[in-house]
């Protein structure tokens, strides 16, 4: 979805505080789960690969924890 999401205001505040581009995932927030992405188009283009890599690492870590 392009355009503001339910956590866009909070994401903007965090981005302004830390600088740079940002992607935020919220689990169980006071508005429910969601995400907000604020970045340039070149960075947005590579974001799916970054998220896939992150998901693979999380799954691997989880599998190692439950052994």
Describe the structure.
This protein is α+β, with helices and mostly antiparallel strands and 67 residues long. It has helices at residues 8-18, 41-65; strands at residues 22-26, 34-38. The protein has a two-stranded antiparallel sheet. A hairpin with a 7-residue loop joins strand 1 (22-26) and strand 2 (34-38). The termini are far apart.
Main attributes of the structure:
67 residues; single chain; two-stranded antiparallel sheet; globular; 2 strands; alpha+beta
- Average pLDDT reading: 89
Shape: globular
> How many domains?
1
**What composes the largest sheet?**
2 strands, antiparallel
The low-pLDDT segments are none
**How would you write the strand order of the largest sheet?**
1-2
Q: Tell me roughly what share of residues is in helical segments.
A: 40-55%
Number of helices: 2
**Strand fraction band?**
5-15%
Q: Would you tell me the structural class of the helices and strands?
A: alpha+beta
Write the layout of secondary structure elements.
Blueprint (H helix, E strand, L loop, with lengths): L7 H11 L3 E5 L7 E5 L2 H25 L2
Antiparallel strand pairs: 1-2
